[in-house]
Design brief:
The protein has 224 residues and is α+β, with helices and mostly antiparallel strands. Helix content is 19%, strand content 37%.
Length: 224
């Protein structure tokens, strides 16, 4: 018999994605319709990583640090659909909320003591040369993610709705290709990476384009 879940326990919700800036723009508009008080800001303005050394398995240990936005203000953006992409943070701003700045700490960093608790983070994909396969291009795999507490039903309900909105704008059916040869291996249904309709159209425009290095859509998406 499984032990009951700790109401105060922290949970993690994530999904792997391939969405380009056009998909991110559609996602932003849909989120604004569903949540009028949602706000977007570029994550690099808000946080950065420091390296803590290398583990025994060879991987680097990192720690993410809150950064001080310029002039102690929050650099909100109207949409996540900008061509240079990157990582974005989205949260629901409570009515009448104002940031309460603390600091600087021992590292000279200011931080918000009352950051809105209902949030998620998402990465917008970028194009890159498909390593090991000259002449081909891929769209990077990113993810949408958030941490929440099991007892926080409001945050979980928000995340579930965000995931449903994203699901309407994405698909997860592909032709899977061998990583080494890029030879097609057949259709893959309900793969773990969800790609936006615009990203899928981009991929289908040319035979040397891939999603997440070795995936291609099963069929074209309907035109707008």
């Amino acid at each position: 018999m499984k032990p009951p879940k700790d109401p105060a326990g922290e949970r993690f919700k994530t999904r792997y994605t391939c969405i380009n800036h056009a998909d991110a723009g559609d996602f932003s508009r849909a989120l604004r319709q569903a949540f009028p008080n949602i706000r977007f800001l570029r994550a690099p303005y808000w946080e950065y990583s420091i390296f803590l050394g290398q583990r025994k398995d060879g991987c680097w240990r990192t720690k993410r640090i809150k950064n001080e936005p310029p002039n102690l203000h929050l650099p909100y953006v109207d949409t996540m659909g900008v061509e240079d992409g990157g990582d974005f943070l989205a949260w629901l701003e409570p009515e009448g909320w104002e940031p309460l700045w603390f600091g600087p700490n021992q590292n000279g960093i200011h931080f918000i003591a009352n950051q809105p608790k209902i949030w998620f983070k998402i990465g917008v994909s970028h194009e890159y040369p498909n390593w090991g396969h000259p002449g081909t291009t891929a769209l990077s795999e990113e993810r949408i993610e958030s941490r929440y507490y099991y007892a926080d039903k409001e945050h979980l309900a928000f995340l579930n709705k965000v995931w449903r909105i994203l699901e309407k704008l994405t698909s997860n059916t592909y032709i899977y290709h061998d990583r080494k040869t890029l030879a097609p291996k057949g259709p893959t249904h309900q793969y773990g990476t969800w790609s936006g309709h615009h990203a899928r159209r981009w991929c289908l425009e040319k035979p040397n384009r891939y999603l997440r290095c070795n995936l291609r859509p099963m069929e074209a998406q309907p035109a707008d």
